Amino acid sequence: MENSGKTEELNLKETEQLKYTGRIGQTFIYLIKLFRIFIFRNDWKVLPMAAVIAGLVSMVVGKGLFVTMEGTLQGAFALSCVCIWNGFFNSIQLICRERPVIKREHRAGLHMTSYVCAHLIFQFLLCAAQTGIIIVVCRFSGIKFPADGIMFKGADGFILEFAVTLFVITYASDILALMISAIVHNTTTAMTVMPFMLIVQLVFAGYFNIPAALSEVTNLMVSKWGTQSLCALARYNDLPAVLVWNRMVAAGSVDLGGGVKLSEVMKFVEENGMREKVLYEMGKASQNPVYVSTAENLISCWQHMAVFAAVFAFVTVVFMEFIDRDKR
Question: Residue ranges per domain, the chain?
Answer without folding.
Answer: 2-238+290-325, 242-285
